[in-house]
Each structure stands twice: as C-alpha cells, then as structure tokens.
C-alpha cells in the first residue's frame, strides 16, 4: 500500500499533502501545533480508524480524503462523520456507517483478520488491525493495545496468529488435584458398570425408555442440542430482521431518489427562493447534486447492489433457519419402542436395572464434580504450541532489532507486550514501539506503510534516531514519520540524508494548518465526488 495524497477541509478552508513518496518521509517542524499530528489523524480517520483528534477540533465539520495505491489500483477515500465514499477507476460506492465500510474494505480491498472471541468468530476492528503498522502520539501503553474497546492484547496476539496462518485452541487450567482424583475414580467405576449394560448396545431405543442412566444421557444431550439450536435460530432471526429493516429503508430511499425528476410536463422543477434547478440528495454527513444523472445513477447503482447483497444474505439466513427448525422438529419427535421388542428384552431389562441405577448415580456425581471444576477455573487462556512459538519468534525479532540500535541497552522483550508493572519511560517507550513495528513487518511481511506520529518523542538520542532511520530505509517501503525539532536541530538542516523525503511544516501558523492556499484544489476534489455546497 502506498499513500499518495492526504487532504482535510471543507468549502471554506483546506489543506492538501501531496508530497508523500515511497521510502522514508519525515514531516517535521521547529515547534509543536503546526498540523503534523492533525494530518496523520486525518489520514487514519479516512481509512476507518476511530476519531483520535485533539479537544477543540470539531472533526465532524470536515471532510477527510486519502488517495492510496494498493496492488496497482488507486483508491480514493472520502469520509465525513460516519459516512464513507470510495471511488476506483470502475466503481463508486457510498457507505453510511463504519461497519458497512469495513465489510466492503475486507471483501474488496484487504481481507481483515478474524479471531474467536466469546465462542464466535469476529472480524477485528480497524483500530486493532492498524496498530500492526501505525502508532499514534497519544494513549500509548506498552502493556496493552492503545485503543482497546472490545478487544485487548490477547486478541491482538490472536490477530497476528490469524495473519500468520496459526490456529488457536482453548487450553484450560488444570483442575484441582482432589477433583481430578475423584473424577478419575468415578470414571473408572462408570466404565466397569457400563460393560455390564449390554442392552444399550443391543437396542439403544429400548434402553432409553427403560434405563435411568441411558435416559439421563439422552436428556443431557437433548437439552444441549435444543438450547444450541434455539440460540442459533434466535441469532439468525435477529440478523435477518436487521437486514430486512435496512432493505426497507434502502428501497424507500430509491423511491425518493427516483421521484426527484427535474422535467415535468408543464416545465421544470426549480427552487422558489434562489431559482436554482439543482436537486440535492443528503444523508446525515454528505450531500450530492443528483441533478447530475451520472451521480444519481451511481448512487442508485450502489444502493441497488447493497439491496441485492442483503437479499442474498437474507435468503441464506432463511435457509439456515429452516434447516435448523427441521432438525429441531425431528429431535422433538419421540417414537416409543414396539411392545413386542420390550417383551423380547424383558429379562435383560430386569436383570440390568441395578447396574442402570448405579451408572445413573455415578454420572450425577461426575456432572457435579465437573461443575465444581469449572467454577474453580479462574481464567481460560487461549494458547497453542504454534501460537506461543509465533509470539516468541516476534519477541526474539524485537530483541534483534533492539540490539541493532542500542547494543548496550537494558530492555528485555520476552513478549510482544510489556508487563503491567514494567514502566517504559522516556525514549524506552519509543524504542519498544519501534522494535515491535519492525519485528511485525519482518515476521508477517505485510504490505502496509509504517506510520509513526512523533517518532522521536521521549528525548530519543540522535545516535539512536539515526540508527532507526537507517533501519526504516532498509525496509524498502513507505514510512511516514513526524518529528518536532529543537531550534539548533532545525537550523542544522536535520534529516539531510539523501534517502529521506523532508516535508517542512514550520511555515504554518500554530493550530492553523488549513487555509485558502489549497482550497480550490480541495473543492475540486469534493466536486469530483459531486459533493454539494
């Protein structure tokens, strides 16, 4: 992926950064508050990240634009609020929420990883995915992911495993020794009793009606099956209802758009106040001039495709619901054994009654101990040999990178994250994030640029900074860094290395990156999306 252009603004003020190149880019200034962080935050926001803008900046009032290249194709992303507009050479799509955009992004641009969380597969958030190659200026926490909502550092590790093709399994803590011994004894007793219950093997149908033990097992299995099927049906119906509601709204929207006819038999439709013949379609964040037939058709096409996709999903969900309902109905049917079969096995039924009662009692005790065992388990850790090996490999790679920039350093990375009580102060934190970014890049060989806001924060020494820049250069990919220099550093023409693309923001006033210099070009971008003002 290559970031070619980033822009922020509205119809009154704007800023465009189009000097980014492949290789190492350093955006610097001789003071803070010159707009470097705003640019990086705007870039990530346009890519789907949650807003991380400073207090006082009303990001909902502005448009955020990014032009990027991925696999030889250009993608133009425009975001305002929660609305996204994406345009390629052959397609133009509008999304009214981050989740819709994330679905499209994962399906058509970059497939986002999935992890198992709370027993079900979940697509990871943009925030956690982007932390693989992006480090913002604020809220850094080496002991956890930076922006953790429903995801945490364990989920981050699972995400890395998914990207590396490593599967995960549930590995519970060992039971208490006393419970283990009791369970072992009872299971051995049950095994001995079950050997004498020949009727179960000869005729399971009769056994389920005459044996307490077999009936208990059947009841337990049936309860689990029914609960599982009912839960699946409820979840599928909820999904189907949401999609149906969304389709209804989209069809209403199509009707509204098709009703916006400019030409009437008596004349044409114009505004009574300004006399304009423009017709505007607006969602909660964006406005489009739909008097332009191409724009209107593009929007209608996008909405139509969205309806078709949701309809296919609804059909699939209905099929799944019906299939589960059929199996549930079959499960509910109870067919009693033929009376002649019962008579045939009468003697065995009577002789095995004692064994059945004993097996029934043992199984109840085993179930009770299993419940106690579960209650004694405080945590369930997700682990596997391959997963642990990957984390160890990344940690080892972090140490190699660390030694390349600080051979006498005292930091030790025995995990991707630090322990909660381990404090990385000053430049140590910067070195940690640097080592993690490079190690993830090396081990996963991903195609994303490295983006670090304020990459030398914490009084990073010049020697270490130069070593880091050299490592960044060796990656042979786009790297975007921001830096605030001291006066003597700025005057000494810092970052004069030939491989560095220097972008100086010192010329911009404090808190005033946007102005009218780039306004015409930015308005042209908005107009190319047919955004109405």
Query: Judging by the overall fold, what is the CATH architecture of the largest domain?
Result: 3-Layer(aba) Sandwich
- Residue share in helix: 40-55%
Q: Can you give the mean pLDDT? A: 77
Basic shape: flat
If helices are DSSP runs of H or I spanning 4 or more residues, what is the number of helices?
17
The portion of residues forming beta strands comes to 15-25%
Distance between the termini: 32 Å
* CA-based gyration radius: 32 Å
CATH class of the largest domain: Alpha Beta
Question: Any key phrases for this structure?
Answer:
533 residues; alpha+beta; Rossmann fold; Helix Hairpins; five-stranded parallel β-sheet; 19 strands; 16% strand
Task: Produce a short descriptive summary.
The chain is α+β, with helices and mostly antiparallel strands.
Walkthrough of the structure:
There is one protein chain. This protein has 533 residues and is of the alpha+beta class. It has two domains: 2-171 and 382-528, P-loop containing nucleotide triphosphate hydrolases (Rossmann fold, 3-Layer(aba) Sandwich); 198-351, Helix Hairpins. Helix content is 49%, strand content 16%. It contains 17 helices and 19 strands. The protein has a six-stranded antiparallel β-sheet. A five-stranded parallel β-sheet has the order 10-17-18-3-19, sandwiched between helices. Strands 8-9 form a two-stranded antiparallel sheet. Helix 7 (204-210) packs across helix 8 and helix 8 crosses helix 12.
